[in-house]
Amino acid sequence: MKRLSADGLAPGRGITIVCLLLLVVVGFLLRLAPLGRYVTPDEPNWVYRSVRFGDAVAAGNWSEIPSTGHPGVTTMWLGSAAVHLQRWLSPQESGRHLEWIRRLAWLDPEIGAPFSHLAFFLPGGRITVALVCSLALAALLPLLSHLFDRTVALLTIGLLAFDPFLVGHSGLLHTDALLTTFTMLTLVTALSGFRRSRQAAWWPAAGVCAGLALLTKSPATIAVGFVGLLLLWRWLDSIVRGSASPGDWLRPLFHGVLFAASLLITFAALHPGLWADPVGVLQDVFYVADRHLTSVQHPV
Length: 300
Description:
Blueprint: H1 13-31, H2 43-59, H3 73-89, H4 91-102, H5 113-119, H6 122-147, H7 150-162, H8 164-170, H9 176-195, H10 202-216, H11 221-240, H12 246-270, H13 272-276, H14 278-294
């Protein structure tokens, strides 16, 4: 049995929790640095989409869900939640800005008038993204501790908490930091499905994380493909070992079904635009992905 300290925690665990809290809190505060300092070109667009997204969800008008092709759905969920909170905190001022924004048929970047109204809701959206990215760091501790050890887990979380590039993106109402966060959780959870007990329970969790990553940005397909290759490798390895029981080579297939099913359910359940026009939404996603591939910038 592990020896317990006076507070009931195993030796070193209390220190680990304190270190984790410090890393997460300081990392979260660093991610709030952009507040009131600058606005990136894409953020007003995401505020505008979030307002339209929240209005469409509240009205149950699924055909009015913005289809960006990124698809950026997690960003719009968080942005619309921030708008809703802002309306609760300051209903009169929020109502005045929303009335102006809702009259826009589209957002023209060459017209500056809408941006003062959109900027009112931007800090809340940034805070929600920073909070989700910071909480994800805390979720890594039990996952990485069982895969490796607590020292490696804390070192990894510390590197992620203070990485300048990730910190900068995690304080914006955008897609990239959320893509990184959900992709990272997908891979770590999938590895837990290979190495930890009760393996079957980890694959639905990995599928949910992968679904959230795909709802954020289409490059998450790379992570999904990587998990698929890991499952294929485990299946082929069990077949090559001739002494393996039928359960050994059926298990990776079962885990793959759990992963794929939970991914598809998450994607379909959290993307209201699919409920009205699934073909159109998927066409937008593939069009944007193809456009990014064919318009790669080359050095002059």
